[in-house]
Amino acid sequence: MHIETAVRARREILAGLSVGALTAVGGLGLLGGCGATAESAPPQTPSALKTGYDRVYRDMYANWWDSKGRVVPARTLACVIPPSGGQKRWGLPAIGEQPALWMEESYHNFLYWHWKATGSAETARMIASQWDCTRAQFGAPTMAGDGRDATIYASDDAGWVAQYLAQVFEVTKDRSALNALRTMIPATLKRFRDPFTDPVKLPGFSYSRYGILYALPGGDPAGQGTSSVYEVPLAIAALTVFETTRDVSYLQYAVAIFALMQAHFRQSDGVYWGNINIDLRRKPYLVSTQAYFGPPQQGVSAVNILGSMAMGVLAARLYRVTRRREYAAQAATITKGMLKPGIFLHDSTNGFGKVFLSISDPWTDAFFASAFATEVLPLPGTDPDGAWAAALGRTARSILAQRVEGGFYGGNWGGILATPNANGNRSYEEQAAKANDGAGGGQAIPQQIMTSANSASMVQAAMLAER
């Protein structure tokens, strides 16, 4: 099934869902006081998973949207320009401080895939409204630059900003979003360039042969001197630029990053390391930001589930653009490899069987889950027996069963661990409480927009993949 056909099919699946999700919020349309109304849809009997997704959608709306048409994480982030000198904290800023754009994008990504699936005009207006807010919040020069002044702290943030701009352009057709994307990718590659090797020059810009730095000197101490699989989101966004402008430099860059990951980040079929030493003269060049190379566990792993899903999506999109069958074959290989037990799939502790675990980053691990379900799984021969979709479904049901009062969703996709992981934690809440020298506020609690949005995206992906 072609990607476009799959999207249309899933829109039909979701048609009835959007009505329940949109009208249940205080009887208002999704823009609250803006007077929007939900589209009508034929009645249908929803599955338990669709009903669960309906509730997730309403929870996300209630907690992270305001009546003025903006993402405002309840009681934690404000969509305003911060007062000068506002002190930033790791995790979530306080009210009145400027939120990081990548935090907002975690929810925006969920909205975007809802729009992709349903074609909802309500959701399109939400995305356009948030785009207006974002430009006022950060300013056009910041959005189009390398992010050093407000939006990009480590190079993984650049991937989320690039994804946001690509999504906004697709929904709104606003060329300013595309122009910002087209300039911020080369600017980011220059800012985080590899200091050990000469850059590879393309007609329009240059990229680093072994990947860009994850963090600059003075940044995240755990990521010093490393490149990371988090460059793949930048490469995926680069394909949006190529498909729109036909600027071949962006295609060449995406192809090069796919090849880099296959050559140096691939641990085995479907499994990719999170980081490597960017200076390959250092031996061994494999590194772990958590100083751990044992079997993957929730909260501690040197391999990266987000990276595997992102590589599947990059392969699918390269296949769509180039029609080279080896990319479709790689997408199928990645899909199969991700099902190997004990890496990403683990026994749940709450009765849902083998489920995917958030082993790397409970704020971003599921960012590409909906894209994977929509663009990778429908490729011929990729998930012939539906095993991947079934694992997604079990994971989603486990997440739904752990809904926290107030409509929040935590990062313990398979339940509280039966025994502590290598860091001595049985849950992400326990891990978060130990952060900042025991002051708490770390990664990850359900009330953080990134945590809830990440888990909500996993539920969304399962519903999209349901057969």
TrEMBL record:
Which species is this record about? Answer: Sphingomonas prati
Gene3D superfamilies linked to this entry: 1.50.10.20
Give the protein name, as stated in the record.
Uncharacterized protein
**What are the BP-aspect GO terms?**
carbohydrate metabolic process
